[in-house]
Amino acid sequence: MKFVVFILLAAILISLGSGLFHLSRDNADSTKLLRALKIRVALSAVLVLFLVVSYFTGWIQPPS
Known about the structure:
Elements: H1 2-24, H2 30-57
Helix pairs in contact: 1-2
């Protein structure tokens, strides 16, 4: 369970770094920057959906 969350967080951070790299270049290519943004938003949505489904199915529980 934690492995999936860590992998998704790592992928989000990699996408964030990729977007920053393409933004900071002198000849910034907006299509690559937009692709990095789309990937980051999609991965974030998948992570949130995964956490909500995990909570409702009982795979994870809040600390008591």
